[in-house]
Amino acid sequence: MSETSTTYPLRLPxxxxxxxxxxAKRDGTSVNQFIAIAVAEKVSALETEEFxxxxxxxxxxxxxxxxxxxxxxxxxxxxxxxD
Length: 83
Known about the structure:
By secondary structure, this protein is mainly α. Helix content is about 60%, strand content about 0%.
């Protein structure tokens, strides 16, 4: 499967463009690569959020609680508390 690309005129505030240029240079990438990666990361984060939201809708809290109360296994240890 070959990836195709398209151009998109992007307007950035000068201060943001300067930051992107500086960071991209430090990162060893072009401004274009930096922006493409940043967009890909944001898309990935939003898609992941949507995936888990859909999975949460399928949750059966009654079954989950039953599973937590089953016999056997090991009791929680000190330090297992959530942050």
